[in-house]
Amino acid sequence: MAANQQAGVPPQVQQQLSMFQQIQQQLQQVTSQKMQYEMTLRETKRAAEELESVKDGAAVFCSVGSVMMQKDKDAVKADLTEKIDSLELRISSLDKQEKMMVGKATQLQKQIEGMLAAANAPKSA
To answer: Where is average pLDDT lowest: 85-89, 92-96, 114-118?
Structure first.
């Protein structure tokens, strides 16, 4: 059925449509990954804030895999700061990637619309 629906569509347009669909799928993946990193960043920042209220010398526990370990407050703080920096960098990178893909998708959409308009325009004799 899909082949019949695309029978009247020029091959160039079909190729552009295929590229457009691929970009949309990639964009969804990037957006999903960015949202996951943003959620992890919020949780990590909250943990860092909570750590600030802990008195020096108090027992601080950190999850290492499936094991909880007691660590020095400053070491945990340094780990959280490093994780925050890393997450912010990843989010920034994904944001740039997302913007680039949106731009490319918009450009492809305009090309496809132009090609379809030209293909459907009445032919002058």
So the answer is: 114-118
